[in-house]
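Sample 3 of the quickstart, ligand pyridoxal-5'-phosphate:
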Amino acid sequence: MTTSEIFKSFGLSDETIALGEKYEKKLEPRFKEIDKTAEFNQLKVIKAMQDNRLSDIHFASSTGYGYNDLGRETLEKVYASIFHTEDALVRPQITCGTHALTVALAANLRPGDELLSPVGKPYDTLEGVIGITEQKGSLKEYGISYRQVDLNPDGSFDYEGIKNAINEKTKLVTIQRSKGYQTRPTLSVEAIGELIGFIKKIKPEVIVMVDNCYGEFVEKIEPSDVGADLCVGSLIKNPGGGLVASGGYIVGKAEYIENCAFRLTAPGLGKEVGATLGINQSMFQGLFLAPTVVACALKGAIFAARIFEELGYPVIPNGTEPRFDIIQAVTLGSAEKLIAFCGGIQAASPVDSFVVPEGWAMPGYNSDVIMAAGNFIQGSSIELSADGPITEPYAVYFQGGLTWYHAKLGILTALDRVLKVQ
Ligand SMILES: *Cc1c(COP(=O)(O)O)cnc(C)c1O
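Result:
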């Protein structure tokens, strides 16, 4: 059997297979660049593991309080080495990205303090956390105020607005690296560095936190290399490499990490407790694989952008611009095509390939939302996954792919199904 024949056995048409071949060929130079970044980051990870003398003993499990968990302590040292920070908190008890961000914010803000977002509205789930929308237990309920400065229409920073927004109450500045599911551009680490420099010139003692979700290992440097005091992310996204069953990380200045640990566990207990229940090995191995996994996801995103752009669909980012996260948006223009796309991603999955995704009334959305994912880890969006609200302009957001070959199969299957809608 040839590779074309195997693709056909998944139901793909000759036209789709040919399009795939054509664009893969065209993207060779771009893919090479991505591999170069992956190589750099792979070496960075291995170096950190060697420098911290990672050993078989660190894969042992702990229970109960989790005192003296050498694996956990070493994992946190490895994260600190990779991100070039004083300390790190990397825990399975951090349940998701939103939780990690909540811990970092609530741990470092006090009543009367103000939180500033100089890059517009943060990720949806943070609206309740901050209290932008009413929510029990929000920062607002604890007397922490919030201010926001939107990006300029061209995506640049509103430096004048930011300067005016910083006041004596401003304690912490939150910068979201990835656009998430908005239409603004994702910020490069370099751009984040410029923004941090500007802010620190106005108020040197302010704490700058970066929501690093979906950005890890996409570039050779991380926000902590350009002045961020805290970087926060999810282990079921990039740095978990697809292997970590649950967790989040916070890296940064020792003082702020201690605050986070006191908040996550209890004041006085901090980092000393937290059983790892046997997942240390996957935390290390996932981190080890993460640079190549991120490269595969990036290739998939660019591959999709190029093909769909060529076929006349608006895509963000476009097929040629630089990438700073792994999310791809494609505007499909009709409900049928959106449903077809998600059906294709689902059908190409290793798990639950027989399931047909449908729109459902997800809490917090005004329209039905359709989601496709056939994952090994529930909700893991470093695995190939797609979703979109079934409403104008019928845009699908997708990300991930643990291997390039799976990303390619998923995108070609989605493409094949979209082409069959007419
Ligand atoms: C995914 C994400 C979050 C939230 O992470 P969850 O694990 O879904 O809670 C926050 N910010 C950004 C930019 C994200 O991509």
